Each structure stands twice: as C-alpha cells, then as structure tokens.
Amino acid sequence: MEAFEVADGNLGLLEGGEEALYQQLLMQAAQEQQENQPAASGSLKIIPKPGFCLKTKAQEGDKVFINVCTAENMPPPKDMTEAELLTLLDSDDPTGYRIPMSLGEPHAEVDRSSKGCTAYDVVIHPTFLVKIQSSQVFMGFFITIVLEGLESKYEMTLDRNWVILKNKKFIGTLPEQTIRSQSKPWIMEMDSSESMPDMVSTSKKPLISEVSSQSAGEERKSKAPQPKFTIVQEPPEGYPEFLVAEIELPKVKTAKSVTLDLGEDRILLKSRADIYYLDIYLPYNIVQEECGAQYNRKTKILTITMPVQPQS
Fold first, then answer.
1. Rounded to the nearest 5°, which phi and psi values hold at 309?
2. What share of the chain is helix, strand, coil (3-state, %, to 5)?
3. Nearest one of 131, 115, 38, 21 to 77, comparing CA atoms
4. Are 294 and 283 in contact (CB under 8 A)?
5. Of 24 and 50, the one with more pLDDT
6. Please, which pLDDT band fits residue 192 given cuts at 50, 70 and 90?
C-alpha cells in the first residue's frame, strides 16, 4: 500500500474538527486503495455488517469506538452454555474457549461534536452476535477479550468503563477486511517402505492423548466417527516450537480421500463417505502456511507437523 506523508506545517493550518476531518479523509483514501487490491493467496476478504457499537477511551483520554460487526465467512466458536463458560473461567486453564474474530485496523473518524476519534472494527460470526446479545455473561466475556486483544495488537490501554451506544450501530465506515483463510496442506502419501520422521516419535510427551469425541468438547457436525489421535509438542517441555498430530485412519486407503483444513488453532479433517470426521482446537496458534502432512499407507497414520507461532 502506498504511504501518505503529511507535512507538519499543513496540519498547523487546520484547527479542531477540520484537522480531524483531514485525517479522516487521508485514512479513508488509504483504506480505499487497500480494498481495491486483490486478496492474496491463502487470504479471504470479508465484508463487515454492523452489529453494535462500543464507546470507551484510550489512556490519553481520546474517544475510541469499537464497531462490533458480523460476516458469514468468519468461523463460529464452539457452542457453550453460560454454566460451562463460568466453570471454564474458574478452572486452571481459562484460555480453553476461543472466539474467532478479526481485529481491523484503526480508522480516523469524526464524532457528532465534530471532534476527532478513532474507530476499530471487530468482526465475528452472526450466530455468536446473537448469543452475546442475549447473555450478559457472554457479553462481558466477549468485551473483555476484545479490549485485551486491541490493547495487545496496538500497544495501548483502554478504559474499562465502556458504554454500548443505543441509537447507533457503528461509527464512521466499515471497510473490507482481509483475513487468513484456512490452509489446505498437501498430504504426502508415504510408501510402506518409508519410515516416519524422527520428530514424530511416539516417545514424545503427549499434550493430548487419544481424545474421545465426548472429551473433545466439540459440537458434532457429522455422524461419522471421530478417529483416535495424539498431539505432542516439540520440545516436550516449555513453550513448543512445533505441534505434531498423529491421526489413526485404519479405514482410509489413500490420502486422496481425505480433506484436511488447518485454522490458526484448529484441525478439521473429513473423509469421503463419512468414514471419519475430526474437528478439534489446538492449545497454541500455529503458522498455517508452513504446516505439512504425511499419510503412511502401511501404518494408516496421518502425521501433521505444525510450527507454533512465537510467543509475543
């Protein structure tokens, strides 16, 4: 995207709302240029639809608006009741529930007092919007996650005394966003004479071992049975560099009959004729573009090697 430079002297000629309007026009021009660019390979453009607008302040006292929007092509989070969420939040690992969302870039806007402000667009799946609007527990949890996510991504501090606007669903514009779509790694089919790589040895410390469909906690979307699987981390202790999943597929004859999708923290596997179905969340975010998969026709095991995103 082309950079826009503004001389300090030009800004000095503008006052109050004029300066805010000038900044808004520059931001909108940059956004329009970005939207006209085709989506890169492995990415997906989403068009946000307004849901509701949250008003808060940055640490410096500047107004911040958060437009909570929806898009059908955003993945929904796994279904969970209020009681299950409260139990999870009181557990030793409250990070077990993840909400797929897209945190958009900041865009300069002008509020109804003609003063400059900043707006951010957060996009979620429409069904989850309905859920949080009907539950104070989920709404409070969601807003906490959004504020922390924006603070982490843009290195700022936001006031927790927020207000949901009653008569306005969004502030400013809702530009398109580009998200990383699920990658479909090519599955290498191994001959019976080939051995598995050393790094996927079953001697590694298991992170998740042979999880059954009940303990996976996922809402089933297929009547096909869930295969047995094991996920190990490398190195075995501390923060991992890789996750390696081994999925047992004894009824699969060839890799061509298997469809594998990897999300940022999710594995989705389907096979023809509904032989197997697996949909699980991972304990760490992975680098989708660098993942690889191998299917051994002798052992009937699909091995997925997934580099883990570095610690922030």
1. -60, 140
2. 25, 30, 45
3. 131
4. no
5. 50
6. very low
Q: What does pTM read for this prediction?
A: 0.51
* Token pair in block for residue 34: 């970005």
Distance linking the first and last C-alpha atoms of the chain: 26
DSSP code of 61?
Answer: S
Residue closest to 305 by CA, chosen among 229, 238, 239, 245: 245
Query: Which of 154, 125, 159, 126 shows the shortest CA–CA distance to 144?
Result: 159
Angstrom CA distances, 129 to 9, 76, 228, 265, stand at: 45, 10, 33, 21
- The string of pLDDT tens digits covering residues 278-299 is 999 998 899 888 888 888 888 8
User: Which secondary-structure segment (H or E) carries 22?
Assistant: helix 17-35
* Residues shown for the chain: 312
